[in-house]
From TrEMBL:
Signal peptide: none annotated. The keyword Nuclease applies. It comes from Pelotomaculum propionicicum. Keywords: Hydrolase, Nuclease, Toxin-antitoxin system. Pfam families: HepT-like. InterPro entries: HepT-like, HepT-like_sf, Type_VII_TA_RNase. Belongs to the HepT RNase toxin family. This is DUF86 domain-containing protein. It comes from the Bacteria.
């Protein structure tokens, strides 16, 4: 339901938006279920997914730029 609102709804690449959702879920797992963390999975994510933060930053800046023009 929350996917209808905010920046998520404005991300044109829905597979990337879904990837961001998975990142948030993983973050929640790290914080709240840290005793169940799979170390090899954490290593894999660090090695392969960090570029998503740069992509997300670009989406946020684009969103803010368009919001200021209104």
């Amino acid at each position: 339901m929350w996917k209808k609102y905010g920046i998520y709804s404005r991300i044109k690449n829905k597979s990337f938006a879904d990837e961001l959702t998975n990142m948030a879920r993983f973050r929640n797992r790290l914080v709240h279920l840290y005793w169940e963390v799979d170390t090899p999975r954490v290593y894999y994510i660090i090695q392969t997914k960090l570029s998503n933060f740069e992509k997300f930053k670009h989406c946020v800046l684009e969103f803010l730029t368009k919001s200021q023009m209104k």
